[in-house]
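the two lines:
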Amino acid sequence: MGRYLFQRLIATIVVLLGISLIVFFVIRITGNPVEAMLAGTEPTKQAIAALTHAMGLDKPLPEQYWIFLSNLLHGNFGRSLYSGQSVFNLVRTRFVATAMLAVAGLLIGIVISVPLGVLAALHKGSATDVGVRALSLLGISFPSFWLGIMLVLIFAVKIHVLPVAGYSSWKSIILPAVTLGAGQAGIMTGLIRSNMIDVLGEQYIQTARAKGLRGVAVVYLHGLRNAMLPVVTYLGLSLGTLLGGVVIIEQVFAWPGIGQLMITAIDQRDYPVVQGGAVILALFIVLSNLAVDLCYTLIDPRIKISS
Amino acid sequence: MFRHASLVVGGILVLAVIVCAIFAPQLAPYSPYVGNLAYRLDPPTWMAGSSHLHFLGADEVGRDELSRIIYGSRISLLVGFSATALACLIGTTLGMLAAYYGGFVETVVMRLVDLVLAFPFILLAIMIVAILGPGLGKIIFVLAVTQWAGFARIVRGETLSMKEREFVEAARALGLRGVRIMLKHILPNIASSIIVLFTIAVAVNILAESALSYLGLGVSPQIPTWGGMLAAGQLYITTSWWVATFPGIAIMLTVMGFNLVGDWLRDRIDPKYRV
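prediction for all of em together
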């Protein structure tokens, strides 16, 4: 276990280094970011040179990267070139909104997919099963932003029960969360269904039934717990995709999360925000993946983590 | 029953989109580029107040929705197929090399895979496109760069199990070299998994392209794309719902078609990847 943790930690550090390197260089591909920042203001050569020097952008790239890295290690993610606020604080305030949306969306996804997946598995091959599979296919096939717009059309424009966009009251989160949850439900329903079918065929389920346990207890206590393992794996591995989905949904609903922050920063070439935000996001995803791995042993004691 | 239905329905959807893309000039009733402001936001033919000239209505500059949707299939399919092909090429090559040679090569490849999976790809794509500027080639490149990891993971796993099989050992005993064994003996045996993944990945890439176009990071705005049409339509959602609705349905039906065919293929040739 100790050795495993150590290996995972090394891998995590390598991944984070890689991401910081990619982000650092990608944002500098087109040359001096200062020129892009000052575009439209017809700056003088002196103004460009002065700002470039003030921001340390005239140093050689490897040296700049080294400064960026050592600042990171000291917990200094830099400051926004526009607002002057510390990147860490900017990301932290936005992170709450993003996390709320992601968690609400996941919960809605789970609430929809668990009953549907179990129902379809119990009645495999029936009309119910076909219906659930069709629904789940629908869930993975529509673009989230389109569903978002359609929900706005129905609930905000036609019947005026929910706000169109923004972040004003608890009602604001309903439409973005449902949009995110519907897509997640599409993926998870299929996973739960097929895992449940496998699990229901196992001998321990037959044993539980033979002991006289009633159907619901067998399905939920013995079956679902085992069927959820691959779902947890999926959730862990797809966190990046989930956050990617959140980024787009934030655009549709003008939700003030990390996605909006990053897209605005990319637009403005506010590269400390882009760099810092990307590294913090990646850190979060990588640590969550590690947590998921460690959770396996809790959910399924049969799994022993060796090397 | 559902199984064969999925092939029939999926096949019809995919074929329909391909036919639209190839025969767009013959099928489209109007030019997708030129509008007539007299028909600005003209409703679909079945609605009151329609001019009955535009079956799915017209957009904010009076361009025919149906024609633009038909032409939009071209970018979706082109990007969907090219990006997937490139991702498949990169992922399959790296995945096979990693599994076959193991050791350092495997570590490097798998860390790269972790790297790609540990980052919301859409942000990376947005970053690259925002910095390099939009363009067809760049979008294909960006999507491939962010999608190859899925292929590498599956191919590595499959190659690892093939590597130990007798026929591969036999080939090695006959003195065949690594590359030849991989291409002639391992690749044909893992091709079915790759084909299944390919079909699903086309669907994923079509969705991703529409998302980039929606964010205004797609190809040039003159070229009709479903995502771009949707973004423009969102501005008129309170008065003219059809402008944003129909491109979304086009995306959904296309993605559904590829997913259905992929599901069928998976059940058919590779029962262990059943979702």
